[in-house]
């Protein structure tokens, strides 16, 4: 091989490495920004009173919920076992499920208050970069002479809320072999009050007062290092909708179709 050809090959290899590194960096930024969707097969259960009425659909929905729960438990147990140096040592990682609902409750209230007051710095601290940017954009679109007052009047049904509706852990980023992502969804029931007022006079804008009873499903995300088992702080991703039987079946069908495509079964079937 000539010196010129060798130099061209080396330049090509360096360019490929640069492109690969840039692609990997862009991939990491995307996942860390929180712009990713919820985990596949995320199941946010309806309250029992809103389950499908027909017996067949009722049990189908309950079975889907139960299967989702145990799938999540197995994944959490697997991480816990991996964090044990031996069978006689304590695990370095624990789920600490009981701490998640009060954490979500406090963070979400602080986020709503920060959004109402236009505190972008607080939003950056509490939220994923993607969600914080979205909220900051909404603040920028407000009329300059208008302000918002927000308050949580009370929390409702304290025996049932806040409640951990879903807790999953997954190696969501296919290019990251070290970190996995935790996703928690917490149901919060509250009465909220909001009104707009003039920044100049402080007077309430007529017709802007709203008092609402809400059940919201707050999504938290954080990263877990599977070598050190250190976690990043929880960040607010946004809110989720409850899973209906119809939407669950549609998602499962889409997942199965994608798995079939990746396995190449559809192509071989079409060519036969």
UniProtKB/TrEMBL annotation:
Matches recorded under Pfam families: Tim44
Major subcellular site: mitochondrion
Keyword Acetylation: no
Domain Tim44-like: 103-240
Subcellular location: Mitochondrion
Compositionally biased intervals (Basic and acidic residues): 252-261
Region (Disordered): 252-272
Lineage: superkingdom: Eukaryota
Gene Ontology cellular-component annotations: mitochondrion; ribonucleoprotein complex; ribosome
Record keywords, A-Z: Mitochondrion, Ribonucleoprotein, Ribosomal protein, Transit peptide
Similarity-based family: Belongs to the mitochondrion-specific ribosomal protein mL45 family.
Protein known as: Large ribosomal subunit protein mL45
Organism for this UniProt entry: Clonostachys rhizophaga
């Amino acid at each position: 091989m000539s010196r010129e050809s060798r130099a061209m090959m080396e330049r090509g290899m360096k360019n490929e490495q640069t492109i690969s590194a840039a692609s990997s960096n862009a991939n990491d930024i995307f996942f860390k920004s929180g712009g990713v969707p919820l985990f596949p097969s995320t199941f946010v259960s309806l309250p029992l009173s809103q389950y499908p009425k027909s017996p067949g659909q009722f049990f189908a929905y309950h079975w889907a919920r139960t299967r989702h729960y145990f799938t999540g438990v197995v994944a959490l147990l697997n991480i816990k076992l991996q964090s044990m140096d031996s069978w006689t040592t304590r695990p370095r990682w624990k789920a600490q499920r009981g701490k998640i609902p009060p954490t979500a409750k406090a963070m979400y209230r602080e986020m709503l208050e920060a959004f109402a007051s236009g505190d972008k710095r607080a939003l950056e601290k509490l939220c994923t970069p993607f969600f914080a940017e979205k909220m900051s954009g909404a603040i920028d679109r407000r009329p300059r002479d208008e302000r918002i007052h927000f308050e949580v009047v009370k929390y409702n049904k304290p025996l049932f809320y806040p409640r951990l509706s879903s807790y999953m852990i997954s190696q969501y980023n296919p290019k990251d072999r070290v970190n996995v992502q935790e996703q928690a969804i917490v149901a919060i029931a509250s009465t909220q009050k909001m009104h707009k007022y003039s920044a100049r006079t402080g007077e309430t804008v007529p017709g802007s007062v709203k008092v609402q009873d809400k059940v919201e499903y707050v999504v938290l995300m954080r990263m877990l290092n599977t070598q050190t088992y250190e976690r990043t702080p929880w960040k607010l991703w946004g809110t989720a909708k409850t899973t209906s039987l119809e939407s669950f079946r549609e998602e499962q069908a889409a997942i199965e179709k994608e798995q079939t495509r990746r396995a190449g079964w559809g192509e071989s079937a079409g060519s036969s």
